[in-house]
Amino acid sequence: DDELQTDGNRSGRFRNGELGLAPTNEDVIRIIAAQLAEIGDQFDKEIQGRVVNDLVQHFLNENLSKEEITLHMSRVVRELTRSIPSDMEQEKAMLVLAMVLTKKIVNTVPSLLHRVFNTTLNYMNQQFHNYIVEMVSAVKQ
Fold first, then answer.
1. What is the average pLDDT value for the chain, to the nearest integer?
2. Per-position DSSP letters for 28-96, written without gaps between them
3. Phi (first) and psi of residue 19, to 5 degrees
4. Mean pLDDT on 6-14
5. Which position among 26, 37, 80, 103 has the lowest Cβ density within 10 Å, counted as fewest Cβ atoms?
6. Residue 113 above 80 pLDDT?
7. What is the CATH number of domain 26-139?
């Protein structure tokens, strides 16, 4: 499976000492990334600072397990999804909200990058793997 990068680029892998790109239609990935970025820009303005600060506190708490933080992030995303227009697919809204929250947390406390990125990646893989595969397939057709 290829990795979907938030900037629309494909993940590179080293093969036999050379950088090889995974065999994916780059244009499809760029189209999806552009759509998600546009939605993310709209959501970015709607997320209040207290929501981000609350998540930052959870990530800073060393006593919380990855699972506990992931569950809290999932709850926050679900709560924020309630304020999203109903004409948008819920999975898409939740996926974008998770990415926007990640960006806001890391912009607030850059030292949390590794922990926040890994948590978000795990969350997205658990919740949206099939949705992302379907989204890529739909654009290819």
1. 81
2. HHHHHHHHHHHHHHHHHHHS-HHHHHHHHHHHH-TTS-HHHHHHHHHHHHHHHHTTS-TTS-HHHHHHH
3. -80, 120
4. 49
5. 26
6. yes
7. 1.10.437.10
Q: Are 81 and 135 in contact (CB under 8 A)?
A: no
Question: Could you give the CA distance from residue 61 to residue 55 in angstroms, rounded to a whole number?
Answer: 10
Does position 80 have pLDDT exceeding 80, yes or no? yes
**Where exactly are the structural domains of the chain?**
26-139
Give the per-residue pLDDT at 15: 45
Is 47:96 a contact under the CB 8 Å cutoff?
no
Per-residue b/e over 63-92, b at no fewer than 16 CB within 10 Å? eeeeeebbebbeebbeebbeebeeeeeebb
CA R_g for the chain: 16
